[in-house]
Design brief:
Elements (H helix, E strand, L loop, with lengths): L1 E5 L8 H16 L3 E4 L5 H12 L3 E7 H5 L9 E5 L2 H11 L2 E4 L4 H15 L6 E5 L6 H12 L11 E4 L2 H12 L1
Parallel strand pairs: 1-2, 1-5, 2-3, 3-4, 5-6, 6-7
Length: 180
């Protein structure tokens, strides 16, 4: 299974993020899944890719040319797909993914996972959409989705396939259930 992970190229100020992202990467690597991610060697993105590789897994990076030109590419990954811009990158990452995980990140991470959420909601994408809600990072987004339902602007069935999880064990259960 190709697991697309969206996350930041920064490390953040919580040391637990680095530990959790390495745990996620190690699991992806040893479980026989393939990581699809943004291709960067910096921050949490680099930690994730490195941990997958160290666990014997495959890593596909999808990187726009301007990031490659700026020196952000991780040369050790299994495969690099170069795109002309961020829109093409986002489309390629969705095309390659079987499951999608949003690790805590910035506005780019939010933009990427909300497109997946929308496609899952519309049934235009048959995939898992998982928000890794470490230490309540995505609580406000979950509240917003609940509020959309309360306001009759969305419905529970529209949000099927969108999961908020607290730890790696919950991710494993959801993904293993999808494999059945």
């Amino acid at each position: 299974m190709n697991i697309t992970v969206y996350l930041g190229a920064n490390e953040g100020n919580d040391p637990f993020l680095k530990e959790a992202v390495r745990e996620l990467g190690t699991w992806i690597g040893i479980s026989g899944n393939t990581l699809v991610y943004g291709g960067s060697k910096s921050g949490l993105m680099g930690e994730l890719a490195e941990s997958v590789l160290q666990a014997g897994g495959k890593v596909i990076g999808v990187e726009p040319q301007f990031f490659i030109d700026a020196g952000f590419v991780y040369d050790e990954i299994t495969e690099l797909i170069t795109t002309k811009d961020m829109s093409e990158r986002k489309a390629k990452m969705i095309e390659l993914g079987d499951a999608f995980i949003a690790f805590p990140g910035g506005t780019g991470t939010l933009e990427e996972i909300t497109e997946v959420m929308s496609k899952v909601s519309l049934k235009h994408l048959d995939a898992l959409c998982i928000l890794y809600n470490l230490n309540g990072y995505y609580d406000s987004l979950k509240q917003l989705l609940d509020h959309m339902i309360e306001m009759d602007l969305s419905a529970e069935e529209k949000q099927e396939g969108i999961y908020f999880v607290e730890n790696l064990e919950e991710i494993q259960k959801i993904i293993q259930h999808k494999d059945i």
